[in-house]
Amino acid sequence: MKSADTRQRFLFEGTDIRGEITSLESSFQAMCSRQNYPPAVNAILGEFLAAASLLSATLKFPGIVSIQAIGRGPITAIMAECSRKTQLRGIVRGDFESASKQQSLRSLLGSATLAISIEPEGGERYQGLVPMERDSLSGCLEHYFAQSEQLSTKIKLAANQETAAGVLIQQMPRTGDREKSQADWQHLGALLDSLKPEEQLSLSHEDQLYRLFHEQNLRLLDAEHLQFFCSCSKSRTATTLLSLGFEEVAQICSQQGSVRVTCEFCDQQYVFDESDISGLFEKPNTPLN
Ligand SMILES: [Zn+2]
Asked: Do 84 and 222 reside in the same domain of the chain?
């Protein structure tokens, strides 16, 4: 696909509406190749990743956007994160054997809650929650935007096993004629509604936008490149060990010679030896065995 692993902003000249369009291919495949997700689970993770890409583009500051669903079905958790606007990672947890018999978002997650978190770099994390009562992730996200009284937003997401795609349009705070602004929003929203998932997954950004909005005065900005990048580190992994407590970690270390922690997002392995663990728990003089 021509627009793979990119995201682009577009503006409708003469209106207060702008949009973002994204397509993921190798970045998405790199994440799934590490796991053994059934096809429907793969596709739902793709939609979450495309949504994280779109939402992170709407941030006015550098930070991390994470979209997470906690469910009670075969899938118990699904999480997609976009940091520094271009780095994506995501993961699904659950019983994949039962999940392989299900197709829809609702049957996979059961009764679920969607959490949208925004963490500005060096700032405080904000989290919004919404029950997942719609049949699609885009419906749940639109519900979230409407409920949190944010800017009017419309989202279309699509994914299969190899590709994920998304388009978002958003109405900026009104500056001009209220009636015209409302009419523009209705009209462009209705055009976006006509976009089919197969078009999202096969057409370039230019072709999708031309197909939808060729009668509008639309300006497409430069593409930003997206990649699979895990933000894990030895020090972030250390917090997991701290939560286990000194006794347990020391016991593993004395049995196995060191403690190995593998990041579930990227398979990176972090090794903590005896001195790392003593330092971590601030017990410099305590022998571990
Ligand atoms: Zn990692």
From this structure: yes
Q: How many angstroms separate the alpha carbon of residue 249 from the centre of ligand 1?
A: 21
Q: Quote the number of domains for the chain.
A: 2
Assigned domain for 29 exists: yes
Distance 221 CA to ligand 1 centre (A): 31
Q: Compute, in angstroms, the gap from residue 217 CA to the centroid of ligand 1.
A: 42
Residue 169 belongs to a domain: yes
pTM: 0.89
In a domain, residue 1? The reply is no
Q: How far is the CA of 11 from the centre of ligand 1 (A)?
A: 35
User: What is the domain-level CATH number for residue 71?
Assistant: 3.55.30.10
Strand segments (E) across the chain: 6-12, 17-24, 63-70, 75-83, 87-94, 113-120, 126-131, 153-159, 164-171, 218-225, 227-228, 259-262, 269-272
Can you list the residues of the chain whose pLDDT is less than 70? 1, 283-289
**3-state SS assignment for residue 252:** helix
- The three-class DSSP label of residue 136 is coil
pLDDT in tens, 61-105: 889 999 999 999 999 999 999 988 899 999 999 999 999 998 899
Q: Tell me the pairing of strands 227-228 and 87-94.
A: parallel
Asked if the structure places residue 126 within a domain, the reply is: yes
State residue 33's pLDDT score. Answer: 87
- Which structural domain, as residue segments, surrounds residue 253? 234-280
Q: State the Cα–Cα distance between residues 8 and 224, nearest whole angstrom.
A: 6
Compute the distance from residue 162 Cα to the ligand 1 centre, in Å.
21
